[in-house]
Design goal:
Layout (H helix, E strand, L loop, with lengths): L1 H11 L6 H8 L3 H13 L3 E5 L3 E6 L6 H4 L15 E7 L2 H10 L7 E7 L17 E8 L10 H17 L6 E3 L3 E4 L2 E13 L2 E12 L18 H4 L7 H22 L2 H10 L6 E6 L2 E10 L5 E4 L5 E4 L3 E5 L1
Parallel strand pairs: 3-4
Antiparallel strand pairs: 1-2, 4-5, 5-9, 6-7, 7-8, 8-9, 10-11, 10-14, 11-12, 12-13
Helix pairs in contact: 1-3, 2-3, 6-8, 6-9
Bound molecules: biotinyl-5-AMP.
Length: about 325
């Protein structure tokens, strides 16, 4: 009920709304309204109470509560209602929490988002740095009817969604996708994606795609070893703060749109969107895989999102995973 009260206060803002009116609306006592208002206040909302006029919302906190980031109008599947969004102040890793929920049967479209992670992860056990309330640290659950080897495709889907949400919010910025899971601004990484899955030989149980976006990080928020390679939207946006709530809402909507598109029409629309935002194709790349290193020209991605690289002898190889460095 507290989120419904918040909604009423928001609509009424900057005017007051009487406790009695709300009590009547919800068919509860005025004390029940007062308790819910108190719980909103302890969640960080500045709500003024006056015995004569009622309650008035003065300020909302910069926190990614479900009520603040649920897309309106509602999406089809991803974060389609506030109940599907699990917000935490501090977790180890949002991917881990969501994998646990997925194992317990959480529905497709469930989202875990945190203000801070203590053990945020990148690929191969690398650490992902997540300063408190400075970014969007989020994981999304998919249960697509696919074979396990198609899971890496969800990294591409998420990368396109991030690029699109940024173009909507900050049209002057030009984020580029570096295959497979990085997004860069002016050559520096501001977003990383980690797709994990649970599967048996031919059966995919679920995919969890984790996205980390440095939104309002300042230089000093990055540890020294990241300062030359990492950036944030704030830094790229002439040091102006960016609304995390609006960006998170738009990101969820873009993920939902791309996913619906994918379910209806297959991978083509996403590959097209990916090509539009990529900064990988046509470049000479050095690719490191668990099997060894390789150099060549990045020609294209195929329907599974694998990168096709041609070496100087004209041999084309296909990479489903790996780490690339872009050469001039
Ligand atoms: C990634 O791995 O880029 C995937 C990052 C995914 C993070 C999200 S946050 C929500 C969800 N929950 C999780 O626990 N993870 C996901 P990789 O390509 O392996 O890159 C990792 C490397 O990026 C590190 O070794 C650092 O060099 C660098 N790095 C770490 N934190 C960074 C940051 N905040 N900004 C830019 N670079 C960073």
């Amino acid at each position: 009920m507290r989120w419904k009260i918040l909604e009423l206060l928001r609509v009424q803002s900057p005017e007051h709304l009487s406790g009695e009116e709300m009590a009547h609306h919800f068919r509860v006592s005025r004390t029940a309204i007062w308790k819910n208002v108190q719980s909103l206040q302890s969640a960080g909302y500045r709500i003024e109470g006056s015995t004569r006029l009622g309650y008035r919302l003065l300020e909302s906190p910069d926190l990614l509560y479900p009520a603040e980031i649920v897309p309106e109008p509602a999406t089809e599947m991803i974060a389609a209602s506030p109940k599907l969004i699990h917000h935490h102040q501090k977790v180890g890793s949002t991917n881990n929490i969501l994998k646990q929920l997925a194992g317990e049967g959480a529905p497709e479209g469930t989202v875990v988002i945190a203000e801070e992670q203590t053990t945020g992860r990148g690929r191969l056990g690398r650490a992902w740095h997540t300063p408190r309330s400075k970014g969007i640290w989020i994981s999304i659950l998919f249960r697509p009817p696919l074979a396990p080897q198609e899971a890496p495709f969800f990294t591409l889907l998420a990368a396109c969604a991030v690029a699109r949400a940024i173009k909507t919010n900050l049209p002057a910025l030009d984020p580029g996708i570096k295959w497979p899971n990085d997004l860069l601004l002016h050559g520096r990484k501001f977003c990383g994606i980690l797709t994990e899955m649970k599967a048996e030989a031919d059966l995919l149980h679920y995919i969890v795609t984790g996205i980390g976006i440095n939104v309002n990080c300042k230089e000093e928020d990055f540890p020294e070893e990241l300062q030359t390679n990492a950036t944030s939207l704030y830094l790229a946006n002439k040091k102006k703060n960016v609304s995390r709530q609006k960006l998170a809402r738009d990101l969820l909507r873009e993920i939902d749109l791309l996913y619906q598109n994918f379910l209806a029409a297959g991978s083509m629309p996403i590959l097209t969107a990916w090509r539009e935002h990529n900064i990988t194709l046509g470049r000479t790349v050095e690719i490191k895989t668990l099997q060894g290193g390789y150099q060549g020209k990045a020609l294209d991605i195929d329907a599974d999102g694998a990168l096709l690289v041609e070496d100087e002898h004209g041999t084309i190889r296909r990479f489903l995973a790996g780490e690339i460095a872009l050469r001039p």
